[in-house]
DNA sequence: AAGCGTCCCAACCGCTTATGA
DNA sequence: CTCATAAGCGGTTGGGACGCT
């Protein structure tokens, strides 16, 4: 048995809205408001439409101050930056762009901006002798090299320049793959890492799977500053520090602090230790810590699923926010 | 002009979340 | 706490617009 329909489909008009319908809806809402009930609104407004359809029409087209037309470079930057950070959370992204709707931004991303960005990030032609600006293809074949953020000698495209001026000092390969991800999973970063994990001794799926068959997998909370503090506050210890403490959540344990495990990128022997110690890697934004805190304090199993998919069976990577630059830089040392 | 392919976006679908009884 | 209902949300798609041959 399927889901009950939200309205009687046989009695409602579907498809494009006519100017008359737009007028009726607009007039009614401006006069009476939505009344907090979209379901009953169409009848009151004299429309043969489903409430959902009315809501969508109003929110995406009719309500005041909707901005239509070309996106500015600044808007492009905001969308790209936020997409790289939080993924396809269109409503959150839209909240940062006054007058733009989530639907609009989603369409714009899918039809134009994604292509624009990929063009900008296309790897340089093979003849190039100076592709120090790291490309996605490049990092696939150069694992365990350290990533030196000071050696960029090529000139990024204007679009990349505008991106970097909006907050990223450097578009990392990791971020590139995140931006280029078209996945529908919760985190394109996660997918990018998974894909590359096949060739990465640290993130190799094989290694990971072999070591992930018990409930006490070691867990590295990979973050900095407030992340660790927040994570530490989840533990039973109360001194606020995170170093060497054990974080108990869902049967996982923290085995070391980020800083303890953060190797000097020029000394690769640290990777051996990491492989031995860390069976799971979490890149954790502060919000996920909040989730865990609220989850534990509320004694709810929610909500490491959804936004933070299935903590029990997979490498858990969520988008990197807040002090993301530091985290990404650190992560990249492993990633290579 | 006709035919075809691609692009674009408004609208839909159905899942998740919030809310209230 | 459970359940029902509505709103919110993001992925998908139908079909019109447009460009090319």
A few lines on this structure:
The chain has 336 residues and is mostly helical. The chain is built from 16 helices and 4 strands.
Shape: elongated
Q: Supply the helix-strand structural class.
A: mainly alpha
Low-confidence stretches: 125-336
Oligomer: single chain
Helix content: 40-55%
Radius of gyration, in Å, reads 24 Å
Beta content = under 5%
Q: How would a textbook summarize the main sheet? A: 4 strands, parallel
Order of helix and strand elements from N to C terminus: HHHHHHHHHHHEHEHHEHEH
Largest sheet: spatial strand order: 2-1-3-4
Q: CA-to-CA gap between the ends?
A: 50 Å
Overall number of structural domains: 3
Q: What is the number of helical segments per DSSP (H or I, 4+ residues)?
A: 16
Mean pLDDT: 48
Number of strands: 4
